[in-house]
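As a warm-up, study this chain.
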Amino acid sequence: MTISETTTTAPTPLARPVPLWAERVARLLPLLALPVCLWRLPIGFDHLMGADVDPMSWSRWANVSYVVTLSLLSEAIALLCGGLVRPWGEVVPRWVPRLRGRRIPPYAVIVPATLLGLLFTALLVDWTLCTFHLAGFSDVPYTSGWWRLLAAVTSGLMALWGPLILALTYGYYRRRCGTDASM
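Now compare it with the structure written out below.
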């Protein structure tokens, strides 16, 4: 064995091929989060985006920090869901010290992804009840129907996260733990 054979390693193949639908959903998640992240930014600067409520009572610095942190965290979670269809969701990447190349136990990914999917599904239920005024729930009042429609569409896109994360998690489970390779 030569030195070049020991220092270069081929990328780790996935346990089973990723279905096309799962690849597309994983790429779609960050795009679904982007509109609501952009929607939040003016709110940090006390532009209420048509909401007929009082502005946040925090200082400007706290408002902006909160909104930017929430938006960055949302996008980070969406990008992290890519691990459900990428090799780094099955094997620790080479750049991670001491753990590089180790196989990730499937349930170390499945359990947190399922909990996250269930949490976001609960948010979808809340969004549905509030947006459509079901069972006595109501949304924030808006100054016009257009603002209300824009708010419902942007937040509704992100509300789809829960079922999509659960679908990706199920696909991951089938690839890593299932006995049937076809999905």
